[in-house]
Design brief:
The protein is of the alpha/beta class. The protein folds into 2 domains: 2-175 and 418-433, Glycogen Phosphorylase B (Rossmann fold, 3-Layer(aba) Sandwich), CATH 3.40.50; 195-416, Rossmann fold (3-Layer(aba) Sandwich), CATH 3.40.50.2000. The protein has 17 helices and 14 strands. Helix 1 (16-28) crosses helix 17 (419-433), helix 4 runs parallel beside helix 6 (128-144) and helix 9 packs parallel to helix 11 (251-262). The longest helix has 18 residues, at 399-416. It is globular, with a radius of gyration of 22 Å.
Length: 444
């Protein structure tokens, strides 16, 4: 069979999809009899990240007009020229959906859609009217006419049904590659990238898009609440919160202003700054100027006014976008990971943290109940009060407790989320959709 992976971006700009979609189709291409090509939209990081798809043939087409819609006049022609047996579309609400629907109606060949959490209630309420218009114009038909819809978990399958879709649904999670671990008596290895500012403290890491959906406002409010009591302050001072990732829509600037309002001392560190500028803030000391907002992945941060450098510990650190070895080092060197999100499909960052043997704090909306069952994660609700309770539990845990939780997470990933197993399940869906196999057990 000749298949085409259709995705809006083949670069780091796609966030977690860059890892999950790429690994899935690379693994699928290793099966005899499956040809895989990739069709995408071009963005500012395509050229930098294209080689990571090797040996898959990738075509990234230029976008005309607003990137949010992603209109590319050559997309339909590229699909027609490919003579594919099957399309697998990752993500919705953009022009590739229009082109895929056109291809399906012209060829009568099947397509599979992976919404990637974009039909969850929170996601639908975000930019609601734009999505209603898009649904009326093309997306509802694109979804209804899919041969199968891919859900990452049971809760996403329920969201797909709640949207009114009656298509067959296959439930197949994301996968993960297991990195080798460095043996250490501590959670972090010596020479950590965090040593320059952690000053011997443990590191709680958030890594991902800096977006309101991720619940970082509640996290900062909880961080301030825990530090508001004498006992909580004593425990919290043994930790530093690191927020790593790329800003979306200026939300990073909002978080920095919130730190100021809450009296949280914060610092912005970027790998390639033109100057090492620190921004100390506390209840009795404020620096002039503010943090950056609106940065895109990979951009160098700048600051219009230089803050006075003050010695002392920083409670929250903004690390900027992290990719490649920098991203791996963040997971390797942190002591715990947190994702206080309001809505997710199945977040790669949680699987990655577990793969590095790190304990996790996460909300049920992360759709990984296996982590709670395996005692590899502390359950938090997407509220400041609940996150504060989770932080207390984390701060009271011993090093051995944290290591044990991380080890259970790594064992869970190895058992249930290895890429060969995930790709084998998806191949069985492809065979079934094309009429060449029995109905897989993952179909509901």
């Amino acid at each position: 069979m000749k298949t085409c992976c259709v995705v809006a971006s083949v670069s780091r700009k796609a966030g977690g999809l860059f890892q999950s979609v790429r690994h899935l189709h690379l693994e699928l291409s290793r099966f005899a009899g499956i040809g895989v090509e990739v069709l995408s939209l071009e963005d500012e990081f395509t050229a930098d990240d294209l080689l990571k798809w090797h040996p898959l043939p990738v075509q990234a087409l230029p976008v005309h007009g607003p990137r949010a819609f992603g209109y590319s006049p050559g997309f339909k022609a590229a699909l027609a020229k490919g003579k594919y047996d099957l399309l697998h579309i990752h993500g919705i609400w953009m022009y590739p959906s229009c082109a895929a629907l056109h291809w399906h109606r012209n060829t009568s060949r099947p397509h599979i859609i992976s919404p990637r959490g974009m039909l969850d209630r929170w996601a639908l309420d975000n930019s609601r009217w734009r999505k209603r218009v898009a649904g009326w114009l093309y997306e509802n038909a694109h979804l209804r006419e899919a041969a199968c819809i891919h859900a990452l978990c049971e809760s996403e399958a329920r969201a797909i049904r709640a949207f009114g879709l009656k298509n067959p649904i296959c439930i197949i999670p994301n996968g993960i590659d297991l990195p080798s671990l460095v043996e250490s008596s501590e959670l972090r290895v010596e020479g950590s990238i965090f040593d320059r500012f952690a000053q011997g403290r443990k590191v709680l890491l958030y890594l991902g898009r800096i977006h309101p959906k991720k619940g970082l406002v509640n996290l900062l409010r909880a961080w301030a609440e825990v530090r508001g009591t004498e006992d909580g302050r004593r425990m919290a001072e043994e930790w530093v919160l690191v927020i790593a990732g790329w800003d979306q829509g200026g939300h990073e600037g909002e978080l920095k202003r919130l730190c100021d309002e809450l009296g949280i001392a914060w610092k912005d560190i970027r790998e390639h700054r033109t100057s090492n500028i620190e921004h100390p803030t506390s209840s009795d000391q404020r620096a002039e100027g503010g943090g950056q907002s609106g940065e895109r992945p990979g951009e160098v941060a700048s600051q219009t006014s230089q803050a006075k450098e003050v010695s002392g510990q920083w409670s929250v650190v903004f690390l900027g976008p992290q990719f490649g070895e920098g991203k791996s080092a963040c997971y390797r060197d942190c002591d715990a990971f947190i994702l206080p999100s309001f809505s997710e499909g199945l977040p790669m960052v949680i699987l990655e943290a577990w793969a590095y043997g790190k304990p996790v704090l996460m909300t049920p909306e992360c759709n990984l109940p296996e982590g709670f069952a395996a005692n590899a994660a502390i359950r938090i609700e997407p509220s400041a009060e609940s996150i504060a309770q989770g932080l207390h539990m984390l701060f009271q845990s011993s090093i051995s407790d944290l290591q044990s939780a991380g080890s259970r997470g790594r064992a869970l990933v190895a058992e249930k989320f290895a890429w060969p197993k995930i790709a084998s399940e998806m191949k069985s869906v492809y065979d079934w959709v094309l009429g060449g196999g029995t109905k897989p057990g993952c179909i509901v």
